[in-house]
Design a protein that fits this description.
The protein is an alpha/beta fold. About 40% of the residues lie in helices and about 15% in strands. It has a single domain, classed as Spore Coat Polysaccharide Biosynthesis Protein SpsA, Chain A, CATH 3.90.550.10.
Length: about 260
């Protein structure tokens, strides 16, 4: 059987308070798609110390499934969860996919062929038409994209799509260099950040060839325990955090922080 071989693709799915999304059987969607693929694969679900019923739902799902792993970590935020999954992964390629499946797992089929064309990092792009995006978020996205491209990653349109893939070796090189992991304090609760910007910058700086591919995207996130504030307050807080991240990366670039080789 093809699944007896070393995985070609490892799908890493971080999870923090995703009960509502899990209840609409998003993992069944993942399983249905992957079961029809000829290449060997594995799925690593990283529970970032969820405080709702997420872990129980995941444990119930993976109990009778081969090639699925439930990995528990102390709450550390999305970058920590993704990095934990990468370290566990055995595949040549790793895909980071959000639990809500706003970009459905089937879009992976659009990314993989580009590795045969010599690319090292292949990321999803949501394009300008985003079903389920409020007017507020549409405007904010354009503003963020415009400002960010003034400072970093001019050749990339959408840095924030939660559907990214790369050779595992590239991820192992870049992730430990994220400034997120240099923080002394562990994050509390749920927080949106632009760690993706720094990650892509590190890939670009290391000389990895990056390909951006437009993928289907529809806002399907039904989680209610990530952030209980109103839409406007949440949007403003997220926007401020993301802009701070971009400016921090630019500041680190100018200070030569990324010129120092990461410890082996």
């Amino acid at each position: 059987m093809q699944q007896d071989r070393q995985p070609y693709v490892s799908i890493v799915i971080p999870c923090y308070n995703e009960q509502r999304n899990l209840e609409r059987e998003v993992l069944d969607e993942v399983q249905t798609y992957l079961a029809g693929q000829e290449y060997p694969w594995e799925v690593i679900i990283v529970n970032d110390e969820s405080s709702d019923g997420s872990r129980d739902l995941i444990a119930r799902f993976v109990r009778d499934k081969e090639h699925y792993t439930l990995l528990d970590i102390p709450h550390g935020g999305k970058p920590a969860a993704v990095w934990a999954g990468i370290r566990q992964a055995r595949g040549e390629i790793v895909l980071f996919s959000d639990m809500d499946q706003s970009t459905p797992i089937g879009e992976l089929g659009k990314l993989l062929p580009w590795y045969e064309q010599g690319y090292d990092v292949v990321i999803g792009s949501r394009g300008m038409t985003r079903e389920g995006f409020t007017i507020l978020r549409r405007v904010g996205s354009v503003v963020f994209r415009t400002v960010r491209r003034l400072f970093l990653l001019r050749g990339i349109s959408d840095t924030q799509c939660g559907f990214k893939s790369c050779w595992r070796r590239a991820a192992v090189e870049a992730f430990p260099r994220l400034q997120f992991f240099q923080q002394a304090d562990r994050p509390k609760g749920w927080k949106v950040s632009a760690y993706d910007v720094e990650l892509l910058y590190l890939f670009e700086r290391a000389g990895y060839a990056i390909k951006e591919v437009e993928v289907s995207w529809r806002n399907r996130d039904e989680s209610v325990t990530k952030d209980r504030s109103g839409e406007l307050a949440r949007y403003v807080r997220e926007s401020v955090n993301m802009m701070r991240e971009v400016l921090r990366v630019k500041r680190n670039q100018l200070k030569g922080v990324y010129d120092v080789k990461a410890a082996e």
